[in-house]
Specification:
By secondary structure, this protein is mainly β. The protein contains two helices and ten strands.
């Protein structure tokens, strides 16, 4: 599938403002903006294996499209939600466990980049990854 492969963060767009809206403190925002995140994606049918590796943590995550699962962000924020496919776009709808607010995430391949977009409480951000 088109998402399969190794990806390394290349640049961010409005990511710090997004993290601020999420309630992440300034020190963690500054560190996260330079986390050197690498993602490995393996898709088999509707099942995904994701490995995230950054300066802060390594996480292995398995999920099936359309099936709700639990997930914790690097800052400890706990979420519950699921990913679906809408055409060529992966769309994740997650709800924070602490306040019930919705976080929407999409992943799409544009040119040879993986563009991961976020929306939380009206603030949009992007992280753009290049193949590693």
């Amino acid at each position: 599938m088109t998402f399969n492969g190794n990806w390394k963060v290349d640049r961010n767009d409005n990511y710090e403002k997004f993290m601020e809206q999420m309630g992440i403190n300034m020190v963690k925002r500054k560190l996260a903006a330079h986390d050197n995140l690498k993602i490995t994606i393996e898709q088999t049918g509707d099942k995904f294996q994701i490995k995230e590796s950054s300066a802060f943590r390594t996480l292995d995550l398995d999920f099936t499209l359309g099936v709700t699962f639990e997930y914790s962000l690097a800052d400890g924020t706990e979420l519950s939600g699921s990913w679906t496919m809408e055409g060529d776009v992966m769309k994740g709808i997650f709800f924070r466990k602490d306040n019930g607010k919705q976080l929407t995430t999409t992943r799409v391949i544009q040119a040879d980049e993986l563009v991961q977009s976020y929306n939380y409480e009206g603030v949009d951000a992007k992280r753009i990854f290049k193949r590693a």
